[in-house]
Amino acid sequence: MSGLILHNYAMSPFAEKMRSMLGYSQLEWQSVTHREMPPRPMLARLAGGYRKIPVAQIGADVFCDTRVIASEIAALSNKPLLALENCSPDVQAFVKEVDLEVFFACIMAGGSKRLRDKVRQSMSLLDIARFAWDRINMGRTAKVKMPGPRSAMPKVLAHLQRMEGLIKQDFLFGTEPCHGDFSAYHSLWFIRDLGERSFINDYPNTIAWMDRMKAFGHGKRIDISAEAALEQARAAQPRPIQADYLQDALIGKQVSIAPSDYGRDATTGKLVGSSPQRWILARESGDLGTVHVHFPKQGFAVSAV
Ligand SMILES: N[C@@H](CCC(=O)N[C@@H](CS)C(=O)NCC(=O)O)C(=O)O
Of 60, 100, 216, 285, which residue is 20 to 30 A from 157 by alpha carbon distance? Predict the structure, then answer.
């Protein structure tokens, strides 16, 4: 058992990025399902103010954002190319673009009656209204420009055209998948598997590559309750901090860390670790004791409190 818990919900594309990575890595993992929008009080006990999904947890260590979750999966499964930092600069630039601009274009262009039916089947009308209101507010406070309905589709089609050219081997950048494959996969999964939009079928290389990605499945998933996940945090101590994570002027200080793009809610705590890729905050969380919350440096900002 890997000990990894993924806090997620079924229709989340970024959660699908991690679920399919877990499938590829063949790890046994535990899943906690949360609502599609805050408040998520059980998750907040672990991650503090951070509001996005997915979040991963191993005991009393909590991992926010797929960039740090992927590094944990890479280490657990001994598949180094799943960690973004081990990929080439070209792949890193590709991931930055597809996980932000292309993602939003796909969300805007991927909607369909089929998707609305699925949403209606899985959420109450009141929750759908809450969800819509939440996402409108998230868009308003975002620091990145979201594509409008008109500019989204040309962007998606240009991306699909690029994908057709990229796929020369089984995977985007070689014969085995890397972080870039999973980043490209989740937004197109939203269009093909959730939205069931047919225009994507005009791109045969992309469809064949998506089928190879989908074939990884989700691995060995065990569903547990949020309370059982909190119990695992309560019973554990955070991992020791490596000595080379202590070279930062803010170590030992109270800081606040938040995404700099959208969903910019902050988590506060004492900075206890800093590497070129990540920050680690210590938070006191009531009867859970101390939890360590890990954030990537890319796409996040830290400030002293
Ligand atoms: N950069 C983040 C993006 C995560 C993200 O945007 N997740 C979406 C769901 S797919 C989200 O959190 N939406 C708001 C919410 O669910 O509350 C990552 O890589 O994990």
Answer: 216
Helices marked H in 66-148? 66-77, 89-97, 103-109, 113-122, 125-140
289 lines ligand 1 (CB under 6 A): no
> Taking 80 as the threshold, does the pLDDT of residue 291 lie above it?
yes
- Ligand 1 atom at minimum distance from 51 CA: 17
Q: Is this structure's pTM higher than 0.90?
A: yes
Q: Is the CB of 37 under 6 A from ligand 1?
A: yes
**What per-residue confidence (pLDDT) applies to 286?**
98
Q: Which CATH architecture has domain 87-214?
A: Up-down Bundle (1.20)
CB atoms within 10 A of CB 170: 14
**How far is the C-alpha of 173 from the C-alpha of 251, rounded, in Å?**
37
Ligand 1 center to residue 172 CA distance, Å? 23
Instruction: Compute the mean pLDDT over every residue in the chain, rounded to the nearest whole number.
Output: 97
Hunting for tokens 């797929």 — which residue is that? 66
Contacts 24+ apart (CB under 8 A), 164-173: 164/203, 164/204, 164/205, 164/206, 167/205, 167/206, 167/208, 167/209, 170/209, 170/212, 171/209, 171/212, 172/94, 172/209, 173/87, 173/88, 173/90, 173/91
Determine if ligand 1 sits within 6 Å of the CB of residue 12: yes
Say whether pLDDT at 48 is over 90: yes
pLDDT tens-digit profile of 120-162? 999 999 999 999 999 999 999 999 988 988 899 999 999 999 9
- Match domain 4-80+221-304 to its CATH number in 3.40.30.110, 3.30.70.100, 3.30.160.20, 3.50.30.30: 3.40.30.110
For Cα atoms 94, 294, 140, give the angle at the middle one, nearest 5 degrees. Answer: 65
**Domain residue ranges in the chain:** 4-80+221-304, 87-214
